[in-house]
Each structure stands twice: as C-alpha cells, then as structure tokens.
Amino acid sequence: MQPLIVAIDGPSGVGKSTTSKRVARSLGIPHIDTGAMYRAIALAGVRAGVSVDDEVRLDEIASRARIEFVPDSANPRVLLDGQDVTEAIRTHDMSMAASCVSKLPAVRRVLVRLQQAMGNLAGGVLEGRDIGTRVFPGTPFKFFLTARPEVRAARRFNELKEKGSSETLAAVLADTTLRDTQDSTRADSPLTWNESYLLIDTSDLSIDAVVAKIVGKVTAGASNFLTPS
Ligand code: DC
C-alpha cells in the first residue's frame, strides 16, 4: 500500500496553512509546509550574502541545508541546520525573497526531491503551489484553495496586525498581488490547477467547513492507502 498524500495548493492568504495543519491532525499524518522550505533557503541565502537570483550558489545552499519540521501541535517549529527559524522566515522580506528563490529550477529540483522523500516516508498533508502538479501528481487527493483577492489581503492584513505590524491594507494587497503574479507566471512549476483537483473557494467559508470538506473527501477514498493505525 502507498502512503496517504494529500495535496493542498493555492495562492497566499487562502487559509492553506491553518487548513492543512488541521487536516493533517485529523488524519493523523504529518503536515509538510513546502512554502516554509523555500523560505528557509531564502533566509540561508540572505544570511550568506547571496543574491536571490544566484542559482549556482543557492543550489549549493539548498543541497547542503538541513530543514526539519518539529511537529508539536501547540507550537510547531521549523529548523534550519538545527537552528529555530520559525519566526525569522515569516517576515515580509522573506516572503518576497522566497518567491524569488522559488523561481530557480535548481532550487526547486532539490526541494521537490526532499518533499517527495518526506511524503514517501510516512505520508502527509503537503501544502504549497505545485504539490498536485509536480511533487505528487499521482495522488487522488488534490485540493486547490482560492479566495477573492481582497479577502486574501484582508486575512493577511489581520494576521500581520496581530503580530504588531503597521503595514496598511493597501500595501498588503499590492504585495499579495505581486507575489501571486510572480508565483503564477514563472516558467518552472507555476501556481496552477487542473481538472484533477477539487477547487474550493474559501471566501465565504469558515475554516471548519473547509477542513470538514477535505477530510470527508479523503476518508471516503483512503481505504487503499497506508494510514497510522
Ligand atoms: O506558502 P508560502 O507563502 O509560505 O510560500 C513562500 C513562497 O514559496 C511563495 O511565494 C511561492 C513559493 N512556493 C513554491 O514556489 N512552491 C511551493 N510548493 C511552495 C511555496
């Protein structure tokens, strides 16, 4: 039997992270945040003084980096070479840097391989942009989350405000739009979906409703897959 892989793709601010974490907990399989991996490589690059478009050096950095997820349900952490970078990768600058770094085919090659290895080990709910198109195209459990741009920007704005940021809603909307355009128009594995996905517009849905929809679909079809007993 194959490990259970659930792909959750979509642009920023659609509620991917919260939804994916809860779906993973409910199914009893790991949550793998692939965006955090691009962010970690962007951070490693910036700390080493490497430009976000230096493919050769970022390839080296990605190939050597040790990225780990520490799955504490109350306080999950991301480690880069043993160091806790959970907060450092969430800044505005790292969002933009990660979007740039994720354009580079050499970096994608390294991280996609790592994501496949992680998923094959114990299954997982993988959230990202290319999980159902590139990382695990064979899984039957693919979900593409969308929401109206102004709803996504408002969610991100509220998240940032809670963390004490003074960014305006207009600035957040401009940023979200720029990053989405960059992620959707790059040559290698752009953000997209196809008919093998279930499309879910989360604009007017609660997180509970989105989670229930995904878990319902997966449990209805998961009997042929390895799940924790
Ligand atoms: O989901 P996120 O905002 O943490 O992702 C950060 C960046 O990484 C995002 O701008 C696009 C990129 N990314 C990607 O290209 N492929 C993935 N599977 C996940 C993220």
Question: How is the secondary structure organized here?
Answer:
Elements: E1 2-3, E2 5-9, H1 16-27, E3 31-33, H2 34-47, H3 55-64, E4 67-70, E5 77-80, E6 83-84, H4 92-101, H5 105-122, E7 124-128, H6 131-135, E8 142-146, H7 149-162, H8 169-185, E9 198-201, H9 207-221, E10 225-226
Parallel strand pairs: 1-10, 2-7, 2-8, 3-7, 8-9
Antiparallel strand pairs: 4-5, 5-6
Bound molecules: 2'-deoxycytidine-5'-monophosphate.
2'-deoxycytidine-5'-monophosphate (DC) binds near residues 35, 99, 102, 129 and 179.
What would you say this structure looks like, in words?
The protein is globular, with a radius of gyration of 17 Å. The protein has a single domain, classed as Rossmann fold (3-Layer(aba) Sandwich). The model has no long low-confidence stretch (mean pLDDT 93). It is of the alpha/beta class. The longest helix has 18 residues. α2 packs across α5, α4 packs parallel to α8 and α7 packs across α8. Bound molecules: 2'-deoxycytidine-5'-monophosphate. 2'-deoxycytidine-5'-monophosphate binds next to α2, α4 and α8.
